[in-house]
């Protein structure tokens, strides 16, 4: 777990720098190890994606993937695996780095209890800048409608590179930045208090870390799920008529018959994915930090 709000980093000392370096290392290692369940649950993620794009019930989305066959089932898995590892490295490392800097410079201007969330917000913005292209490529690859004219990863990369950034690699950047910044802020702001509550019920530290990560990420995923649906619909196509964020949201809301239930189609599978991946990542990260401390 990142430093508690009450801990004080060593001002300017070598230990201060080492804390930040270890955060990058631990974040990357825990995320790399969690790529195994990411690989296992990728079909679940792809099922959710198809529901987000085509507004299908789960059985129709599964039937669509079954008809395409096992070869195409894992089409688009490379970007999330790579992104998962790099994401953990950057997210945990940056959050702890920003947290330490804020702790040194805030001078009681900012409440110490708010510092983890504020640092998470900053880390989430940087995360969006770095990983929006990965998500764009992933969503294009996972859309079965692109299989014919964009059959390979290389063809997708060439096509996106030919377009200006706002239409190519950085399509839907604003909703991604909002989702990642808010999500990271909530994750780092809530997982410490949730951990304390869970540990108070008599669970072991490792189990408490897993449960806190799973519960926190589950709540965040559900709260921000509409933004993920919006991003998927904005990024799945390449070319054609280009609309802004507001226009795309209006089209999405209309296509879901102005129903929150239909907008959240696939949300239950997001809970499953979040519980597995972020629960394991949080447990592994906290364990590494405690061992090195």
Automatic annotation (TrEMBL):
Superkingdom of origin: Eukaryota
Gene Ontology MF: a single term: NAD transmembrane transporter activity
Keyword terms: Membrane, Mitochondrion, Mitochondrion inner membrane, Repeat, Transmembrane, Transmembrane helix, Transport
SUPFAM superfamilies per record: Mitochondrial carrier
InterPro entries tied to this protein: MCP_dom_sf, MCP_transmembrane, Mito_NAD+_Carrier
Pfam families reported for this sequence: Mito_carr
A GO CC term assigned to this protein in UniProt: mitochondrial inner membrane
Swiss-Prot/TrEMBL Solcar repeat ranges: 22-101, 111-197, 204-291
Transmembrane segment boundaries: 24-45, 169-190, 210-232, 262-285
Membrane topology, from the record: Multi-pass membrane protein
Record carries keyword Mitochondrion: yes
Localisation per UniProt entry: Mitochondrion inner membrane
Family label: Belongs to the mitochondrial carrier (TC 2.A.29) family.
Entry protein name: Putative solute carrier family 25 member 53
Species name: Scophthalmus maximus (Turbot)
Classification of source organism: Eukaryota, Metazoa, Chordata, Craniata, Vertebrata
């Amino acid at each position: 777990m990142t430093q508690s709000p009450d801990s004080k980093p060593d001002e300017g000392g070598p230990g201060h720098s080492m804390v930040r370096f270890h955060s990058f290392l631990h974040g990357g290692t825990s995320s790399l190890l969690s790529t195994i369940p990411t690989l296992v649950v990728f079909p679940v993620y792809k099922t959710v994606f198809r529901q987000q794009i085509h507004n299908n019930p789960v059985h129709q989305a599964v039937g669509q993937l079954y008809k395409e066959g096992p070869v195409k089932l894992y089409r688009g898995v490379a970007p999330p695996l790579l992104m998962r590892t790099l994401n953990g490295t950057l997210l945990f490392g940056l959050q702890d780095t920003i947290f330490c800097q804020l702790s040194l410079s805030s001078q009681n201007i900012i409440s110490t209890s708010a510092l983890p969330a504020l640092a998470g917000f900053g880390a989430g913005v940087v995360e969006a800048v770095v990983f929006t292209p990965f998500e764009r490529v992933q969503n294009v690859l996972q859309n079965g409608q692109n299989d014919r004219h964009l059959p390979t990863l290389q063809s997708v990369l060439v096509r996106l590179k030919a377009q200006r950034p706002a239409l190519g690699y950085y399509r839907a950047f604003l909703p991604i930045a909002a989702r990642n910044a808010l999500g990271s802020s909530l994750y780092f702001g809530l997982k410490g208090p949730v951990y304390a509550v869970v540990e108070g019920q008599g669970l072991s530290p490792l189990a408490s870390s897993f449960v806190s990560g799973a519960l926190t990420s589950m709540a965040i995923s559900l709260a921000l799920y509409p933004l993920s649906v919006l991003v998927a619909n904005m990024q799945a196509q390449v070319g054609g008529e280009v609309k802004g964020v507001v226009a795309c949201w209006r089209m999405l809301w209309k296509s879901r018959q102005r129903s929150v239930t239909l907008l959240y189609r696939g949300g239950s599978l997001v809970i499953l994915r979040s519980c597995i991946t972020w629960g394991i990542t949080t447990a592994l990260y906290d364990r590494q930090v405690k061992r090195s401390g």
